[in-house]
Amino acid sequence: MHAALLDQAHRAIEKTLAERGNDFRPAYHLAPPAGWMNDPNGLVFFRGEYHVFYQHHPYSAQWGPMHWGHARSRDLVHWEHLPIALAPGDAYDRDGCFSGSAVVADDRLYLIYTGHVWLGAPGDDQNIRQVQCLASSSDGVSFHKHGVVIETAPEPGIMHFRDPKVWRRGGQWWMALGARRGDDPQLLLYQSDDLQHWEYLSCALQGQRQPDGYMWECPDLFELDGSDVFLYSPQGLKPSGHDNWNKFQNSYRIGLLDDRGFFSECGKVRELDHGHDFYAAQTLLAPDGRRLLWAWMDMWDSPMPSQAHHWCGALSLPRELSRDGERLRMRPARELTGLRQSLRSLSIGAVESADCLLDERGTLLEFELTLDLAGSTAERFGLALRCSEDRQERTLVYFDAMARRLVLDRQHSGAGVSGVRSVPIAAGQTRIALRIFLDRSSIEVFVDDGAYCLSSRIYPRPDSQAITAFAINGCGAFGEVSLWRLADLGL
Ligand code: FRU
């Protein structure tokens, strides 16, 4: 039956491909060939290749019964779409193969995921059953389902119980799950010798509705530079100051996980990325020891104009994680320099209360530049990207001297989207180093070598390609700008 369901899903994708609109299609970010994508799942390195699976609805560009889409790459730059790996349809995953992870054991690739069933009306999430399931593959392409491996939550009454992340520690398999107990979130841990039989170990961390939200989706737990990191996607946080303005967040806590399965935190809860569109981040350990991370570069309930073009959703660029005291740093994976086609160096110099058109334009671009704060007097200065000829469309990245923040403004970034996000710039900091990636419908800004990131979707018209450097009320001093055209890989 699984094979027949997969065939049916592939036929739906084939049919939709002919109708797909490509104006917003990413050139070098992973997106579904057609239909809907959300969370990255099952990030894993298997027989010399990176595999990325993702939550996928092949029958429309809306969320629906979740399948696992699949792509693989040797170099993190070029990706090959593979057949859909999992389709829902068995009694235990009838309404969705929800998020999960992948591991390699004895040269076999295993997927561990949540089987989802609506017990009442579809969409009534107070009446659901969630179980943890296993599937495996000998070739990394076609998967055989093994059924349920964890049938019930450790306490009766826990219905939201999902997104297994499995990893190896101390000669055993460990699994982290996100759960909701009443209105409070939990991080639950299980252990296994064989991936089939799981024992409940602990509630590694118990949160409280205030201030932790009501559910921690997509947990990940890993060692990084001598500490343990709990990375998760909390639901139900309220905006506070400049933080938590998205519908849901992507947060992390640094601490230590002991052998009995208890996580003790040190430091604050922090947001991982400060853009509008970043959720459900997951990591893998690369063979060279790097911790690589991808997120869904969208947000629940936000405008998604590409749905009208029969596809929706993209993943962030892969990022290398490192720890800097109590904070995580995210840098673009070093392999991404492989996207660079041609380099232009631009000397903008000082811009005095003006808006200067650069003699470069484009949609697929990478920038490296510095903003020289010490040499500037402007209230605001920075770049306007993806500008239309009449400048009605524009996406701004600038330093706000009064607020001392680096701002990403997509108030005029094209179809559907709006809003402003920003990150703090320390008092006394004299320059800001920026690395910016533009694709047809996204912008990722890496601030000060990945100390902060802002990732957002934008939907300008294809011909909105101009770039300006601007300064408001005073002088804005720009360091040398390196600008690369990036490859169109048609992902
Ligand atoms: C996170 C999430 C997961 C769930 C999946 C369903 O975005 O809600 O908790 O497994 O998406 O698609």
Key structural traits:
491 residues; mainly beta; Tachylectin-2, Chain A; 8-stranded antiparallel sheet; 2 helices; 4% helix; 53% strand; binds beta-D-fructofuranose; cytoplasm; Sucrose-6-phosphate hydrolase; Glyco_hydro_32; hydrolase; glycosidase
Structural account:
- This protein has helices spanning 2-17, 209-212, and strands at 35-46, 49-57, 67-73, 80-86, 97-105, 108-118, 128-137, 144-150, 161-169, 172-181, 184-192, 198-206, 215-224, 227-235, 251-257, 263-265, 270-271, 279-285, 291-296, 311-312, 319-324, 327-332, 340-346, 349-352, 355-361, 365-372, 380-387, 394-400, 405-412, 420-424, 431-439, 442-447, 452-457, 466-472, 475-478, 481-486.
- It is mainly beta and 491 residues long.
- The chain has two domains: 2-332, Tachylectin-2, Chain A, CATH 2.115.10; 337-486, Exo-inulinase, domain 1 (Jelly Rolls, Sandwich), CATH 2.60.120.
- Strands 23, 24, 26, 31, 32, 33, 35 and 36 form an eight-stranded antiparallel β-sheet that branches. Strands 25-34-27-28-29-30 form a six-stranded antiparallel β-sheet, with no helix packed on it.
- The protein binds beta-D-fructofuranose.
